[in-house]
Amino acid sequence: MARSRAEMMQETRAKLIAAARKAFAEKGYADASMDELTAAAGLTRGALYHNFGDKRGLLAAVVNQIDEEMAAKATAIASHIEGEWQALLVQGSAYIEMALDPEVQRIVLRDGPAVLGDPQQWPSQSGCLHTTQETVERLIAEGFLKPVDPEAAARLLNGAALNAALWIAASDDPGEALPKALDAFQLLASGLLK
């Protein structure tokens, strides 16, 4: 049975993202050759341009994929935690801890912001912010958190986790920075408790 055009396009995109993810993780965005990564995918530069516009567009797709995986992993870790507040803190802490992953460090936390700009503007981060805001709204309504603007609280919680991860990724000793970041994140977040 012949594959549809949409299926072929999806397969092409997946091949390019996989090849780029490997190249960006190993060499970094700046040193990753478009010719090498398209050859590794068995495709042409034309396929890259058609699907992503340019190398920057391909990086955006890779960052989005990894960031969505990070959010799903943090959600899965927190799914076993009782209580929405504790689950929210565990999610934030899990996100921070992922900054120890070399692929996350290089692609999402170093090259991503350098090439794509403010991570808080990325589509994957917007989804995470929306989920956090909904949780904060419920916790305020239940009287668990102080009455505070839910969007502001969600932005500050997500921003604290993101900036902690960025700090760890840029640190000379990420393993040493991690416990400091986690302690500070927990302490900052506890200020919202009623």
TrEMBL record:
GO molecular function term, any single one: transcription cis-regulatory region binding
Give the HTH tetR-type domain ranges.
10-70
SUPFAM superfamilies in UniProt: Homeodomain-like (SSF46689)
Q: Which UniProt keywords apply?
A: DNA-binding
Q: Which PROSITE patterns match?
A: HTH_TETR_2
Q: Which InterPro entries match?
A: Homeodomain-like_sf, HTH-type_TetR-like_transc_reg, HTH_TetR, Rv0078-like_C
Q: Which residues bind DNA?
A: 33-52
Q: Which PANTHER family match?
A: HTH-TYPE TRANSCRIPTIONAL REGULATOR RUTR, HTH-TYPE TRANSCRIPTIONAL REGULATOR UIDR
Record protein name field = Transcriptional regulator, TetR family
Q: What is the lineage of its organism?
A: Bacteria, Pseudomonadati, Pseudomonadota, Alphaproteobacteria, Hyphomicrobiales
